[in-house]
Amino acid sequence: MSPSTPVRRTNLRSGNMKRDTPSACGGVIHFSDHVPLTEIQKTHINLRPNRTVQRKKKGESVKQLVVLDGQPHAVCPETEKLIYKTFMVVTSGFRKDTIASGENPYLCNKKCPFCTAMITRWPRVEDRWELMSARLDECQRNGIWFEYLTISGNGEPSLVPVEELAYLKQVFDQKLHLFGYRRFQTGGAIFFIDRVFDLFGREFTFEITRLSVDDEEDMMGLVYKGNYTQTDAFKSAKVVFNIVLLKDNVRDVLSIIDRYVERFGDILAGLNLKILNINTFDESEVKNPQSQWILRNGLLKAEGDQVVRTMDQTFCRLEENFDPFLDRYVWNGPALPSGRQIPITLYARRAKYGLANVVYYGGDLVDYQLQPIRVPTSQERERIFAMAAEETL
Ligand code: SF4
To answer: What is the model's pLDDT at position 392?
Structure first.
């Protein structure tokens, strides 16, 4: 990683060129260099009930969006797969000792003031890793393919015993065909734990949430010790940063993006602009200190449109229209000297939280409200693919 990589913005700036000028955006886009759906066309979404809303161009592998009975689905007609965003493994991650009141009960190297785990307090469960393989087989039988696998946790997943992580890694290695690529969410602890980093370091992308590109500010804001950005492990990794959007930093979003790209460009796989969730279980339950912190400091989802406008004036979209199933906007961000552009994603939080995610928790496949995942029945599946085929004729 070079400490200061010059940033080149090849895209739209100052609103001189409109986003609907197709040639300005380079035609067919690459969704991600990891994703087997190699070329996903720009979409022309016109949301109507029960209509396919993304067309396929001749000779391209595409992701299509189908709305069946008001419910959006992302599909790939060519592979006949239903596309979900991520298969998320949430480790239970509780401390073994008695929980002192007010203390974070989760094994974690940080004390984020907006800690989602502290807001939702998922129940203590046995992780039941022995069921992982069978659960992934269920996904395969249901014709599901995931853009990526995420190892996550209530707490820091790299603090799970290394033997358990090695077992999981073995299972995931046998199921590579189910995922476009693989991520490991970390607070940075993994870069200090050689045995764990050695397991995942070469093959996984590390997803890290930051309050600031400046190390000291970040360490103070998220309350942690140990500057992981100085470790050799971090410098050799592939990284996605979640940049927390705050009321205070939203005006500077473009310069913040530039600073991340300048500082971390060589190891940066992408940037996410993160709108914090006040409560993923129940948005009306905000009495806890973490939700209160978010309400005071965080950019709220209703204010996300201003970020979309700013980004649209500057960058081309990778997925031209808002995708209501994956619930996100994606832009082709600043270019490195090599010509590689950094994708930037904003999750709009308009859909039910985690709609396109399947969560493994305690041996079950659930959504973010801990309810069993409902995948389309075989009849619904047939209708979804019939609609997709009809639209691409
Ligand atoms: S890293 Fe995650 S679990 Fe740890 S304090 Fe921050 S939000 Fe909570």
So the answer is: 63
* CA-wise closest residue to 177 among 150, 132, 146, 221: 146
Nearest to 372 by CA among 381, 362, 382: 362
Contacts of 219 (CB under 8 A, 6+ apart): 225, 227
Q: What is the pLDDT of residue 50?
A: 34
pLDDT in tens, 95-128: 766 555 556 678 899 999 999 999 988 888 999 9
CB contact at 8 A, 379 and 306: no
Token pair of 359 as six digits:
């969560």
Quote the CA–CA distance of 373 and 158 in Å, as a whole number: 26
Which atom of ligand 1 lies at the shortest distance from residue 223's CA?
5
Which domains are delineated in the chain?
22-392 (3.20.20)
- Cα-based torsion angle of the residue sequence 275, 278, 283, 285 in order, rounded to the nearest 10 degrees: 180
pLDDT in tens, 33-49: 222 222 222 222 222 23
Q: pLDDT tens for residues 247-282?
A: 999 999 999 999 999 999 999 999 999 999 988 888
- Who lines ligand 1 at CB under 6 A? 106, 108, 110-112, 115-117, 155-156, 187
| C-beta of residue 227 within 8 angstroms of C-beta of residue 170 | no
Q: 94, 104, 108: which to mutate for ligand 1, most atoms within 8 A of CB? A: 108
